[in-house]
Amino acid sequence: MVTAPPRVLTVAGSDSGGGAGIQADLKTMLALGVHGMSVICAVTAQNSLGVQGYWELPPEAVAAQLDSVLSDIGAQAVKTGMLASTALVETVADHLCGYDAPLVVDPVGVSKHGDTLLAADAVDAVRTTLLPLATVVTPNLWEVELLTGVKVESEDDLMRAAEAVKEHGPEWVLIKGGHLPTRPVDLLYNGSETHLFSDERYDNRHTHGTGCTLASAIASHLALGLSVPDAVAAAKTYISGAIRAGFPLGSGIGPVDHAWRTRARPA
């Protein structure tokens, strides 16, 4: 008898260029052997040069998608990304509150190109309604400052940032230090345990979708039964390979290669 793979739900925005958002999430889930499902919260007009515009879906449309998937198929892990507005953050939090599955929150506030993807008045809703539900929250350095006011300027600031985010209630905090001026270091913290993940500097500017991909990889590995530290370690291995294999697309920043483990490269 054929059995279904683990199921992972992404709740995020659509990237018309295919490098980030829902598209990156589903590619990651497929690559890691889980069944990906999607709730679309916003549609972006986006390419390798930036985000030219975005349009939110009505809260009732997001609620209906959540009801459809969770009431019938169910999910063994959930990942959230671009939620855009207070109404959508609150709608998603209301539906996920009490749902018995790990939740990975990528508090998307800005695109790789610097385009704002979260309304200013929605930041408090993320802090107060979504972060307390999170199994893991994965802010980058800009998002840490947005959520807590803590500015990370060196590796020494990572723990202070993690403690500040942890005060808002997530079980684990992963501070992504890819934009540190020295070596890239990520810090995973749950109030007592600390894990550091150090990366090389990649000679590759094609990094569109790294945050979405990492969060989706963590959710996929949680659905596969790994602990949070092991899921983050496995996700870091996956995203590192995807960044190394990133390819040019369009005239700007290309995407990471979600299929890097299987794609045949010319000699």
TrEMBL record:
Catalytic activity field: 4-amino-5-hydroxymethyl-2-methylpyrimidine + ATP = 4-amino-2-methyl-5-(phosphooxymethyl)pyrimidine + ADP + H(+); 4-amino-2-methyl-5-(phosphooxymethyl)pyrimidine + ATP = 4-amino-2-methyl-5-(diphosphooxymethyl)pyrimidine + ADP
Pathway assigned in UniProt: Cofactor biosynthesis; thiamine diphosphate biosynthesis; 4-amino-2-methyl-5-diphosphomethylpyrimidine from 5-amino-1-(5-phospho-D-ribosyl)imidazole: step 3/3
Keyword Transferase assigned: yes
Entry GO CC: cytosol
Presence of the UniProt keyword ATP-binding in the record: yes
InterPro entries per UniProt: HMP/HMP-P_kinase_dom (IPR004399), PM/HMP-P_kinase-1 (IPR013749), Ribokinase-like (IPR029056)
GO MF, any single term: ATP binding
Gene3D superfamilies (UniProt xref): 3.40.1190.20
One Pfam family cited in the UniProt record for this chain: Phos_pyr_kin
One of the GO BP terms on file: thiamine biosynthetic process
PANTHER family assigned to the protein according to its UniProt record, in alphabetical order: HYDROXYMETHYLPYRIMIDINE_PHOSPHOMETHYLPYRIMIDINE KINASE THI20-RELATED, PHOSPHOMETHYLPYRIMIDINE KINASE
Protein name (database record): Hydroxymethylpyrimidine/phosphomethylpyrimidine kinase
Native source species: Actinocorallia herbida
Upper lineage: Bacteria, Bacillati, Actinomycetota, Actinomycetes, Streptosporangiales
